[in-house]
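Worked example

This section walks through a single chain of length 229. The input is the sequence exactly as stored; nothing has been trimmed or padded.
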Amino acid sequence: MINNQGEMLTVPLSLEDIKKSYGRMSRFYALPEGIFEKGLRQKGLQLLSVAPGEVVLEVGVGTGYSLKEIANSVGEDGKAHGIDITPQMLGITGKRVKKAGFMDRVELYEGDARRMPYQNGKFDAVYMASTLELFDTPDIPVVLSEIKRILKPKGRLGVASLTKEGREGSLFIRFYGWLHQKVPKYANCRPINVEKLIEDAGYQIAKTEEFILLKIAPWRIVVAKPLTD
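Given that input, the structure is written out below as tokens.
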């Protein structure tokens, strides 16, 4: 469980374990993502404010609901990129954006967010939802640093994450922490100190908003900009 000091739990799974887990879940993951996370997705993308003509990356595309919205927002002159470690999720995402008529403005890549193939300063914005909390604690700063590398100097990062900040005593947070320790293959994410992690990685927070998913699960939506030296 989460200890009295509020430290984050670790993720006792390898990248390959998580890849296999989400590969299995991909067959039914679109339903909860499409229905239960709709409000979270709408609020997160609203705060990120993707504009026509921008080049935007989503880290952890899932079944493609957010990437489809991003592709719609960037318009014909923009580009929406998506990266995920799970080929099954990428396959579902590809079908979704193709059906929406956006495939000409979307590029998908199977890979690890800790080592992304994109050039420095490529993106106007990077978005990730239900993803940062999947990485083990030592890997989170690595992912945030890699995102900082590929963002433009005035770019912005949008994160929607299960949060424990200010809610360490919450029954839901304590239960989810217990569940994560008991069955990590199925409850493989865990609540994190998302704002502190982002600030510690060299970002300035521009916007933040709490979102209670299904009236019990606290999520924090953060938009931040990389600090310049």
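What to look for: The two ends are 38 Å apart (CA to CA).
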